């Protein structure tokens, strides 16, 4: 599914260049859920952005392959068409673009890329209603421009609904628990768990173990100093919650 080898990446920081990832290795197989944990500045969000193809990062060394294709040679829209989805830590508001118009355009573009026919308006409306009902996305929200006037929890629900409609092969969740109360966290997590399948993988980026009580990962990795310094099962997340990251920062 996803194979990352010796990944080095930097970003322009004022007049200088700052290296963020310093030899990161990661292997994700179909059907697996991997969690990346680590302190602020470790490179967690950078990793997610590079996988999705966000501008502003310079990959200086290493490779990323997705389903045996060179991901680094693909434009962001090609990565999305290949089945990669990024849920942002802070979903942006897009005034002037209707949520339903955006959803239909995105879904039918993905279907076309997969060689499937576009959904008719009745088919699309039915699919949206099914996904919205599961995530508590109200019809009134769907009539607004994208995320405009939404609370943090509503933005996250809307984003997971997009994921449910697009049916990606690899979903990268960048601190999806950020800004969520307990009820919203439970609803969003249930939406993610309903999409788990042998063909779909997840990369969950988080600071805190509480999200992993709801979305139980197969593998947990500690990212510190720009590379993965330890890997384990779900019990590793609980250990981090108790002990913190200090020892891993020293090791890095």
Automatic annotation (TrEMBL):
Keyword Flavoprotein tagged: no
Pfam families named in the record: ABC_tran
SMART domains in UniProt:
AAA
Q: Where is the ABC transporter domain?
A: 2-250
Question: What are the GO MF terms of this UniProt record?
Answer: ATP binding; ATP hydrolysis activity
Q: Which PROSITE patterns match?
A: ABC_TRANSPORTER_2 (PS50893)
List the InterPro entries. Answer: AAA+_ATPase, ABC_transporter-like_ATP-bd, FeS-cluster_ATPase_SufC, P-loop_NTPase
Would the keyword ATP-binding be found if you checked this record's keyword annotation?
yes
Q: Which UniProt keywords apply?
A: ATP-binding, Nucleotide-binding
NCBIfam families (alphabetical): sufC
Family indicated by similarity: Belongs to the ABC transporter superfamily. Ycf16 family.
Q: What is this protein called?
A: Fe-S cluster assembly ATPase SufC
Name of the gene: sufC
